[in-house]
Each structure stands twice: as C-alpha cells, then as structure tokens.
Design a protein that fits this description.
Number of strands: 7
Oligomer: single chain
Distance between the termini: 27 Å
Radius of gyration: 19 Å
Bound molecules: phosphoenolpyruvate, magnesium ion
Helix content: 40-55%
Shape: globular
Largest sheet: 7 strands, parallel
Strand content: 5-15%
Number of helices: 13
Strand order of the largest sheet: 1-2-3-4-5-6-7
Length: about 280
Amino acid sequence: IASGAGGIGLVRTEHLIIRLNRFPTEEEQFKWYSELAERAYPLPITLRAFDIGSDKRIDSLAPEANPALGMRGIRLLMKHKELFTSQIRAVLRASHHRNIRFMVPMVTSVSELQKTRVLIDKCKNALTREGVPFDMATPVGVMIETPAAALMSRELGSMADFFSIGTNDLTQYALAADRLNANVTNIYDALHPAVLRLLKLTVDDARHHGIPVGICGEIAGHAAATELLIGLGIVELSVVPPLLLELKKRIRKASYASSVLLATEVLQYNSGSEIRKRMAIMKKR
Ligand code: PEP
Ligand code: MG
C-alpha cells in the first residue's frame, strides 16, 4: 500500500495452514482476515480460498502419484466441507467493511462454482440468524488456472463476480509442463500462443458478462508483458510488492491503442519465441 497499490490482488490463505501445520480454526482465520482487511481499508483485498495440494503440500495430505492432477484447491475443499465452511464464515465475518473479495482456485467445472455458491449462501443464512454483520454482496470470483476453466469462462462468468487468471498454473496445465520441473523450463512458457489464446478467450467472456478480469500469476509483473496484457484487455495486475512501482510506471507509459494493436498482432504468431522476439524479451527469464 505504501508503494501505491490499488488493493491486494492475491492473498494465498493456505500460508496460514502451512505456518500452523494444521487446519486453523474459524477464529484464527477471522482474526487474520480482519487484520488484513482493516490494514488495507478502504482498498479491496482478494482472499483466495485455501489452495492446498500439488506444489502446496502439507504433511497430512495423502501422497498421490500425480498431485498436480489430483486433490488440490476446490477439489480438496469440497472433500473437507467443515474446513471450507469455517473459511467462508471467517471471510464473511471479516467482510463487514465491504472491502473483501473471495475467489476459488483450481476450478474445472461449473458445478464446483455452483456448489461453492450454495455453501456461501448457507453460511450467509446462518450468520444472519446469528445476528453477525457481514457484506451480503461479497464478490465471489473464479481463478482461471486450468484450460477447462478458460474454455468454460462464458458459463462460469454468468455466476462469477470477477475472474483472476492464475497464469502460473494455467501455463503448467495448458502446456503439460510441471511449473517446478527444471527439465521442462524451456517448454513452460506463459507467453506461448496457447496460453495467450486462453487469456483472450477469458477476457472476451468476462467482457460479455461485464465482470473484471485480472492476472495474479507471475506474468503480471513481467517487464516485457505489460503492454501485451493491457492490449488483451486485462484490467487488474497483481504482483509482488517490489515490482509494483516499476509496473505502474510501465502502465502509465503504455498507449492503450498501440497495446491493442500489439496484442492483435501477437495472437497471430505460432510460437512463444516469435512472441518473445517481437517483444524483445530475452529467451531465458
Ligand atoms: C497461479 O497459478 O498463477 C497463481 C497465482 O496461484 P499459485 O501460484 O499460488 O498457484
Ligand atoms: Mg495457482
């Protein structure tokens, strides 16, 4: 905030689980979320539902042969409803200043969002009965971080208040390249045309529904990608604090019209390396 952020685009709430090495209680969560919301107020903060599993492992998870394709994010939350319920209640209780957004990770199906909405409504009803104040209009967003979510963004957008594209995972799943595997870093490329086309699709569907679409993956802070992302129609970029000032400077220098032309041109290319060349990016990040 001291660097001029317009809010906090991604709070990885699973850090609380990793720090405590157990599932936190509703009260522990309420305390943390409230503190974050109060410190950021009146700016908005975006709390991402616990995204455990895969690269965000905790000891109590059963080992899986292919964890990136296994139980993680919303899949795990739907299995541990009591944990998800405690999180939703804590988020809603902390929302009474009206500056909290909540988003769901690792979505692949419309039904996951529907079930999440049902659970949120149940928690809202319970809190109303208990006389607890909360923001009835807390925005609920979807992380677009699987190709399925991007391809279903038209349907998801009719039920979501915003999209946040997680390019770290979207790249991994679109290109079938493990984000942590050094052997495939040459394949793992967030500027691959396949990834950019998924971004474009998501933006078009977000626009269709009139909902905002941002990026919270690392590409948001990539020095050479700013104009391209603006040109694609992304309206929010979420980056780590040290990158903020530089990013704001680049955004202020960018021309919207030439960014749109750049994006239109780059979407015709058939490889990430051509795109990188066009944008004068060094091949190795
Ligand atoms: C992403 O996948 O791009 C993302 C922002 O989430 P994480 O890096 O925590 O998986
Ligand atoms: Mg992710």
